[in-house]
Amino acid sequence: MKTIYPSICVESSSFFTSSAAAALVNIRAQSRYKYLWHYFRPSLYIIYRRKTANIINVENLADNVIRAYDVLENKKFNSIIVGPGSGAAADIANAMNAPLLPVHTMAIELRLFNPIKPDNIKKYLREGSELAKIILKNNKNIDIIIHDDVIHDRTMIKRYLINRIKFNKLPEAYNFFIKKYLKKDGTVIFIENTQSWKQYKIDKNIWFQLGGYGGIEFEEYVNGSERIDNWLKKSNQNHNSGWSLDYPVEQRPESEWGTPIGLDKDVNNYCKKNKLNFIKIQTDHITNLSLLSAYLWYERNKKDGHSNGYSIGTFWAHSPTASALSRYIPYWVPWPDEQSLKIADSHLNRMINDFDVPKKVIFARHGAIGPDIVGIRGWEDMLGKHFDKKNIKLHGSLTNLVYNRIKKSVHSLATLNSIESYIKDITIWAKKLDKKSKDSLTINDLIRIARKLD
Q: Cα 412 to the chain's mean position, in Å?
């Protein structure tokens, strides 16, 4: 089976853009390259020496992410979506038969030989700021968020310094893309997620986000807590009493899933200038988009048949292609934490009450670490409230909940392999079913369903 891979191999929006592209042509988007050396090779998109940061061109980064759409060749579309690079947006794009253009990209410094200790956030900030200032010197119309989740990304931040680049204006690469792939009377659908997180204001256009999406709030990262200390102790870590920086704090769009402030106005003006239709879907939490995608797919499957069950994935354990080909309604969970479990439980109550769909579910749990993470059995217990045990198919039991100095590399490899095997297996299974609905949804369908859920 033909497979495409994210162009930036450790970056979420790149993977979800690839998965949206793959779904449009019924092939597989794989989150992991076959060979691990892709994660450590020097390239223009993983900065491995500080002095090479001068060559970073954000337009090239944006263009690199959307090269996944080369598989489309010369197809034209009724709509194109600009929104947070996420599984929810990818599922919405698939329902609308539309490409997805993410609102951010990343510049990553690979620290292969000079790792940063996970708890040394001041060093992470200092070196992240140096990189950010070089990027900003040579690029315009962007904000940069230095993202340091000292718990959930603990296995990653030691080797990767993350600068998330948020677009304040539509990149020129997107302008070329829209002119190539959108029909003359087409619509740009802008998805605005106002979900916020407290961030440290470091400098002009530079913020530092401590922590990230999950079941731990910003204040708990700053002040620490008994459960964090207990988890660190179990993980053979010495740190306690929280993490904090002496900078002003501002409430801003969350680094990974939030939409940049003001980008909606720029895209709207772009559409007016180019005589394109523009609509905006607004939400205050990324999981509301997951609920929207489920209702969209239920509606689409009704047009020429019915849905066969539910497909629930978490983070990168996700395949829009498989959901579409199997007619299993997709619902994407950003992270396998306790808060997301509660939201998913509530949304399932609503969906099962509203949908005439067989009560069968395929669930995949992305491997994650932290005191807020719910293991595979906890997710099974929640699903058992809605589905008979015989109708629940689980993936992800190989992953664990703690960070361990001895086993951390084993944990990372197990996580990557569990995602890869899930995506491969579920896509092959769905390809055999080959039940994709023939009819796409219209803009009016999208507006009607979005208003119903508002």
A: 18
Judged by phi (left if over 0) then psi (alpha if -120 to 50, else beta), residue 327 lies in: left
**All residues at 6 or more sequence positions from 333 whose CB lies less than 8 Å from its CB, including other chains:** 287, 290, 312, 313, 314, 315, 340, 341, 344
Q: How would you list the strands of the sheet with 100-102, edge to edge?
A: 100-102, 77-83, 182-193, 277-283
pLDDT digits (tens, 9 = 90+) for 182-221: 999 999 999 999 999 999 999 999 999 999 999 999 999 9
Distance of CA 352 to the CA centre of its chain: 25
Q: Count the helix, strand and coil residues of the chain and give each as a percent rounded to the nearest 5.
A: 40, 20, 35
Q: Where are the beta strands (DSSP E) in 114-215?
A: 142-148, 160-167, 182-193, 196-203, 206-210
HSE at residue 161, side-chain half, CA atoms within 13 A, is 28
pLDDT tens per residue, range 383-423? 999 999 999 999 875 555 555 544 444 444 455 556 778 88
Alpha carbon 358 to chain centroid, angstroms: 28
Q: How many residues does the chain have?
A: 454
Beta strands in 284-323 (DSSP E): 309-314
> Is the whole-model pTM more than 0.90?
yes
Please give the mean pLDDT across all residues of the chain: 91
